[in-house]
From TrEMBL:
This is Stage 0 sporulation protein A homolog. It comes from the Bacteria. InterPro entries: CheY-like_superfamily, OmpR/PhoB-type_DNA-bd, Sig_transdc_resp-reg_receiver, WalR-like, WH-like_DNA-bd_sf. The modification 4-aspartylphosphate is found at D52. It holds the Pfam family Response_reg. Residues 3-116 form the Response regulatory domain. PROSITE patterns: OMPR_PHOB, RESPONSE_REGULATORY. May play the central regulatory role in sporulation. It may be an element of the effector pathway responsible for the activation of sporulation genes in response to nutritional stress. Spo0A may act in concert with spo0H (a sigma factor) to control the expression of some genes that are critical to the sporulation process. GO terms for molecular function: phosphorelay response regulator activity; transcription cis-regulatory region binding. The lineage of its organism: Bacteria, Bacillati, Bacillota, Clostridia, Lachnospirales. It comes from Faecalicatena orotica.
């Protein structure tokens, strides 16, 4: 399992990134004390660093240079700065990639996997667009579920729900987490709508021969 260090001063974004990465099977460290950051980064010994540019008392671009003097760990800037010159500056200061907020979770995970691969490391999910659990495959690119040669198309809501379940296969995903994720991705959904979508996904799984894939854990949520 590979370790990612998150250097982000916004506590909500920091917590969101930590949850996203842990769900993608990475080990995650976060920095909350923004003094002696380089020393803290060395102590964590991460395989990759996610770095914001606007940090308390220090510019992330300069910090990247300081990190580069001590470590060869790949760095991805995750920042609200979104013009071409900002991205160029990030690359010139030693960054390996640059992604702007608000980011889309699958895109961020794909960028992380690409940087790990390019730097000679391999992440826990080699292909962030395809998830396979038992005989069933979720294809994020064409929004389909397939099993033993049969496939079913998914709506936008169903795709996000399946992504949450397949990316955390074997783990319980609560209804609250599913609703929060859908809302965060501008898919407006309530508790009743979630139940309807789960029922539809189960129907599609049944049609392709995987009818018992989703397990309901009463009072906890769902898992595959």
């Amino acid at each position: 399992m590979y370790r990612i260090l998150v250097i982000e001063d916004d506590p909500d974004i920091r917590a969101e990134l930590k949850l996203l990465l842990e769900n993608a099977l990475y080990e995650v460290d976060v920095i909350e004390d923004f003094t002696q950051i380089v020393s803290q980064a060395e102590a964590c010994a991460p395989d990759l660093i996610l770095l914001d540019i606007q940090l308390p008392g220090i510019n992330g671009l300069s910090l990247c240079q300081d990190i580069r003097r001590k470590m060869d760990t790949p760095v991805i800037f995750v920042t609200s700065f979104n013009n071409a010159m900002d991205e160029l500056n990030g690359m010139m200061m030693g960054g390996d990639d640059y992604i702007t907020k608000p980011y889309h979770a699958p895109v961020l995970l794909a960028r992380i996997a690409a940087v790990l691969k390019r730097t000679g490391k391999k992440g826990p999910q080699e292909d962030p667009y395809h998830f396979i659990w038992k005989d069933c495959e979720l294809n994020m690119l064409d929004a389909t579920l397939s099993c033993r040669g049969r496939s079913a198309e998914l709506t936008k809501n169903e795709l996000r729900i399946c992504y949450n379940l397949f990316s955390r296969a074997g783990q319980i995903v609560s209804r609250e987490e599913l609703i929060d994720d859908l809302w965060d991705n501008q898919i407006f959904i309530d508790d009743n709508t979630l139940s309807v979508n789960i029922t539809r996904i189960r129907g599609k799984l049944k049609d392709i021969g995987a009818g018992n894939m989703i397990e309901t854990r009463r009072g906890q949520g769902y898992r595959i």
